[in-house]
Design a protein that fits this description.
The protein contains 21 helices and 20 strands. By secondary structure, it is of the alpha/beta class. The protein has a 6-stranded parallel sheet, with helices on both faces. It has a 6-stranded parallel sheet with strand order 11-10-9-12-13-14, sandwiched between helices. Strands 16-15-17-18-20-19 form a 6-stranded parallel sheet, with helices on both faces. Helix 3 crosses helix 15 and helix 13 crosses helix 14. It starts with 7 loop residues before the first strand and ends with a helix.
Amino acid sequence: MSIYSTSRTGGQILVDALRIHGVERVFCVPGESYLAVLDAFHDARDAIDVTVCRQEGGASYMAEAYGKLTGRPGICFVTRGPGATNASIGVHTAFQDSTPMLLFVGQVAREQTDREAFQEIDYRQMFSHVAKWVVQIDDAGRIPELVSQAFHRAVNGRPGPVVIALPEDMLTEAVRVADAGAYKPIVPSPDREDMAVVRTLLAHAQRPLMIIGGGGWTAQAVADMQAFAERFDLPVAASFRCQDLFDNTRPNYVGDLGLATGPDLFAGVRGADLLLVVGARLGELTTAGYTLVDIPVPKQKLVHVHLGIEELGRVYQPTVGINSGMAPFARAACALEPVAHVPWKTHTAALRAAYVGALEPLPSPGPVQMSEVVRWLSEHVPADTILTNGAGNYSGWLQRYFQYKGFRTQLAPTNGSMGYGVPAAVAAKLTVPDRLVIAFAGDGCFLMNGQELATAVQYRANVIFVVVNNGMYGTIRMHQEREYPGRVSATDLVNPDFVMFARAFGCHGELVESTAQFAPAFERAVASGKPALIEVRVDPDALTPRLSLSEIRARALASLKG
């Protein structure tokens, strides 16, 4: 491209670059450190929607959720110092979830650096461990070059977050510079030899298991992977919080490897003679604390397919390591000739039967049965409904009892970050307004970003927020009772009236105190035509889908006595 005939400020060059790279929405909390960018957004308001959030953590979560949902980098702008530290939670989430994301941070003026100026932080040091790349643009003339590099780094290889620091005076500097073109994803593909080895290993397997997860998926890749699994009658498990990568209602789906995994699937991993791992890193939660697969050489034959070449052999030595994008691998897998004999048909059927059996609601203490609530939702909401959640024991009911039926119907943080569900749901509803979006949060989880109800109301993002209120930090109480039974410390919560809280923001509010009340409350919430919150008050003893708080404590006390 030719150099502009007139000069532009750094802020104008940056916003022009975002338009060229196809950015349609950014999430932000405004700050004086990047006023020149905000001014440039005013001129680009017909092309780029600017969503103003109430806290930088919420803004960065929204950008991460956008990136996860669309596969395109989510864009977040925050101010220096406190703004950046608040936003770091979304960067860490994007890093562990392999989500493309760009965080732009206002920075002190160049002449003030290294003096500990007002809100000054060295972002290269701060974000070096949780971002793919951190750069500070000190010359406005290099904005097109470095922003292009940021987009390419965010989407290529293992997707992830990139942080770009913007000195305040650089953004007001006027220069003449040529724009760069739009970024182009570069996706590696498996070669024929790789796929021939995969088929040979399948032909000799007795108890194979496919595990899918990670980032870089597309709807077509998911469809191709499902077709491949069905042609070979392979049992398929999802890695932690990646259940929407395979239709849970299909006969090959056998459950997820995470916090709500049943003993049959754990046994299926340990007893497999071939693990075909596509996209997943085989992290701590997917491997039950690295106990399901031996390190460094698994006893199972391991085919590991991953976008990031640095992941292959990082923890586990694969029998075959394939550096490939999900779409090219799934397409190549679909083209494989089926093996003549499939001895694992009964094995697949048995794992599927165990998964289906675990969908039957188990009774728990109190008048609200969360298992029945989640099963009702699973059976009644549209197949393309998006469910979001943060972290907490309440999410165990979602992982166990909800069946995800389509690609990108689950937005949840694999890094176990609380406060994610509310802002993620707002971002999802703004991105795909015609789809139903439901945010689940515990009482502790909700209040970490509950202020983003204001963002939902401001932009008419009609999310249904479900707050599961048990008056405690449930996950920590669970571990506390296991390790120090009866010695409650720092886990009790005193909560507001969540219905009144929601109505104060302009949301519709509902209170549910029994299972039978949930369905009509949910239907009223959907019909309200505005953001709605349903507070579900559950018995504090109903701590997990399998065990009550009392049972956990009793077992721990018995173990101490023994």
